[in-house]
Specification:
This protein is α+β, with helices and mostly antiparallel strands and 365 residues long. It is built from 15 helices and 9 strands. A 9-stranded mixed beta sheet has the order 3-2-1-4-5-9-8-7-6.
């Protein structure tokens, strides 16, 4: 596999071929954007915006030098402001879809015949301006004039190709689950979704089932999971009803709908959820050379123990951490951890270009 740094160089050398002028003009036409030809028309602006990110998200003055000095730094900022966010999102979707079609998963890459996706939340910071503070907020407890605005960022990656399938930036403090219904919409049915224990609450599990997806998550930290052989006290403390036992520390349980609606979900979506769902709970002790044995408990919607053996479910759950590598590629290797734009619209455009570049890099890799 090509390294990420080498792939970035490949993208930089072929930007005009990959994101051609006709492709960008077509995206502008679809979004109803009109423009005049010039050194900073939409095709040139998009290509330079991508070049800016590929070079390490350099400053605007560096973009002017890269373009040969045919315009000023303020003119570059104005060109980015004129470029609609919808055009960048259109291009991002085209890049993602074309790469997904060009590199479909092989039978060996599918997990028991299912594609796999990784979901996680992170954050990034940006310049300290009033517009950005009003839109994204900042870390609680900061004194006025100290620190920077911080955005909450939800991302979904393809497990095998690493492609960024969905991302959404919102105000700091937004619940990790708020945009999961939209994220589910980009996944094909029967995709196995991996995430941390924040995604294993009843409401999200029920939404996963409703959407026709499958889920493997660590059991929620507030759920008391007890298996066969528990005493009366333990049985009373359990937060689920056991339906049947499948094997050692492997069982089907019934979860009931909470009485109080979580703040992140709409009333309409909450009312549409079933009153109860059945999920499978598995507990295993994981041993790795050089590490202490660790006990993990998994909640999954994969109920068939023959088709989905407990050992394989637990092994896939451990691969959830691969998403941290994908996020690190974006935030650390590609310098997305601190964005440069000073307006909310600009930051969202900058984030969109990072998504385009990251997926192009993944395509090369």
């Amino acid at each position: 596999m090509v390294s990420l740094a080498a792939a970035l160089r490949g993208v930089k050398q072929n930007i005009c071929q990959i994101l051609s002028r006709p492709l960008i003009e077509l995206a502008c036409q679809r979004q109803g954007h009109r423009w005049r030809a010039g050194p900073l028309d939409p095709p040139n602006t998009v290509q330079l915006f991508v070049r800016q990110v590929v070079e390490g998200n350099v400053a605007g003055t560096a973009v002017v030098r890269l373009a040969g000095g045919g315009f000023t730094d303020p003119a570059w900022c104005q060109a980015r402001q004129r470029l609609p966010l919808a055009v960048l999102r259109d291009l991002s979707g085209q890049v993602r879809d074309r790469l997904a079609e060009a590199y479909p998963p092989t039978d060996k890459q599918l997990w028991f015949g299912h594609p796999v996706a990784l979901m996680d939340a992170s954050n990034f910071s940006m310049p300290d301006t009033k517009d950005l503070r009003d839109h994204f907020g900042s870390v609680p407890g900061q004194k006025p004039g100290c620190g920077f605005p911080v955005a909450h960022w939800l991302a979904v990656f393809d497990f095998h190709t690493g492609l960024l399938l969905y991302d959404e930036a919102s105000a700091y403090g937004t619940a990790d689950l708020k945009h999961t219904p939209q994220a589910h919409g980009v996944l094909e049915k029967q995709t196995v979704l991996l995430g941390d224990d924040a995604f294993s609450g009843y409401v999200h599990l029920a939404m996963v089932v409703q959407r026709g997806l499958l889920g493997i998550f660590p059991s929620h930290h507030k759920r008391n999971v007890e298996f066969k052989g528990r005493g009366k006290t333990q049985a009373a403390a359990a937060t689920s009803k056991r339906i049947r036992t499948l094997g050692h520390n492997d069982q089907i349980v019934e979860l009931t709908k909470p009485a109080v609606k979580p703040r992140w979900v709409s009333q309409e979506a909450f009312d549409a959820l079933p009153e109860s769902i059945q999920v499978r709970e598995i507990r295993r002790t994981v041993r790795r050379r050089g590490f202490r044995p660790r006990q993990i408990t998994v909640t999954t919607t994969l109920l068939d123990p023959v088709k989905y053996p407990a050992k394989d479910v637990v092994q896939l759950r451990q691969r959830r951490w691969d998403v941290e590598t994908d996020i690190r590629h974006l935030k650390t290797t590609m310098n997305m951890e601190v964005l440069r734009c000073q307006t909310a619209g600009g930051v969202l455009k900058e984030l969109g270009v990072f998504g385009i570049v990251y997926n192009l890099v993944r395509g090369v890799m």
